[in-house]
Amino acid sequence: MKVAALWPARHKLLAVIVDERGRPAAPIDAARTRESASALIAWLDMTVDVLVVSDAHDALVDLARSASSLTLELAPHKLLEAIRRIAGFTHRPQRDTAALLARWPLTPVLRRYLRRPPSVGLARHRDQLPLL
């Protein structure tokens, strides 16, 4: 199973692909435009099985939903930020955060926090409270 993660760095969009053992390939970067992100996601759709994105990046989640064969997994942004701060990733290159996010499904302790995005018709606003 090949896993990729998308992480929006300051001036570019980073993607890191890891293999079954969690070894990362060289990071792939794209401009932070909708067209570049769509092209990168389309390429990832043909290359990997799972795509991991932070749940705080709604625009990336919406673009990734359009990929037909990818399994999209959302990582909780608050937990990701806590891990980044504890591990010192806030002072390291952004590609390290993308690699951390890509390894998330391969790490048993973190895997249970991943979730699938709701279907498009059932999506709700973040401030809306669930009834049940």
Sheet with the most strands?
5 strands, mixed
Determine the fraction of residues in helical runs and give it as a percent range.
25-40%
Strand order of the largest sheet: 3-2-1-4-5
Uncertain segments? none
What is the approximate shape? globular
Estimate the mean pLDDT confidence.
88
Task: Please describe what this structure looks like.
Strand 1 and strand 2 form a beta hairpin. The model has no long low-confidence stretch (mean pLDDT 88). Helix content is 36%, strand content 20%. It has helices at residues 34-47, 58-65, 77-87, 94-103, 108-111; strands at residues 3-8, 12-18, 28-31, 50-54, 71-75. The chain is an alpha/beta fold. It has a 5-stranded mixed β-sheet with strand order 3-2-1-4-5.
Brief rundown of the structure:
Helix content is 36%, strand content 20%. The protein has helices at residues 34-47, 58-65, 77-87, 94-103, 108-111; strands at 3-8, 12-18, 28-31, 50-54, 71-75.
Supply database-style keywords:
36% helix, 132 residues, five-stranded mixed sheet, alpha/beta
